[in-house]
């Protein structure tokens, strides 16, 4: 068995597609009307369909998990983030952990937690 995809819930699938393309270069592979598969195994699911499947409310910024990306040029990434999405909500701005890794954490437009760090 292998992990095939990671699904996140979004309110506006096109806005989310653009966000993940702008910042991470993810491309759309398949659009299935409210369920969109992107490169690197990312799946975007529109909130209204997810609510129907689960029968529960969606809780943005629940901090129960995060999407983790690595970037060698993290300062360049921060510049791109601030240029394209100046109103992004940060958990922490660029910082350096005691073990030397630089990281930044923020929410996507739908409250999904993202961490970008330098490779270890």
From TrEMBL:
<feature type="domain" description="VOC">
    <location>
        <begin position="2"/>
        <end position="119"/>
    </location>
</feature>
<dbReference type="GO" id="GO:0051213">
    <property type="term" value="F:dioxygenase activity"/>
</dbReference>
<protein>
    <submittedName>
        <fullName>Catechol 2,3-dioxygenase</fullName>
    </submittedName>
</protein>
<dbReference type="InterPro" id="IPR029068">
    <property type="entry name" value="Glyas_Bleomycin-R_OHBP_Dase"/>
</dbReference>
<dbReference type="Pfam" id="PF12681">
    <property type="entry name" value="Glyoxalase_2"/>
</dbReference>
<keyword id="KW-0223">Dioxygenase</keyword>
<dbReference type="InterPro" id="IPR037523">
    <property type="entry name" value="VOC_core"/>
</dbReference>
<keyword id="KW-0560">Oxidoreductase</keyword>
<dbReference type="InterPro" id="IPR025870">
    <property type="entry name" value="Glyoxalase-like_dom"/>
</dbReference>
């Amino acid at each position: 068995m292998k992990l095939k995809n990671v699904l996140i819930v979004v309110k506006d699938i096109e806005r989310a597609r653009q966000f993940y393309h702008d910042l991470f270069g993810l491309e759309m592979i398949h659009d299935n009307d409210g369920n969109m598969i992107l490169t690197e195994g990312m799946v975007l699911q529109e909130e209204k369909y997810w609510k129907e499947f689960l029968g529960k409310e969606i809780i943005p910024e629940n901090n129960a998990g995060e999407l983790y990306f690595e970037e060698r040029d993290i300062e360049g990434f921060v510049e791109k983030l601030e240029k394209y999405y100046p109103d992004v909500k940060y958990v922490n701005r660029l910082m350096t952990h005691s073990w030397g890794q630089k990281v930044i954490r923020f929410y996507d437009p739908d409250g999904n937690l993202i961490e970008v760090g330098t490779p270890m």
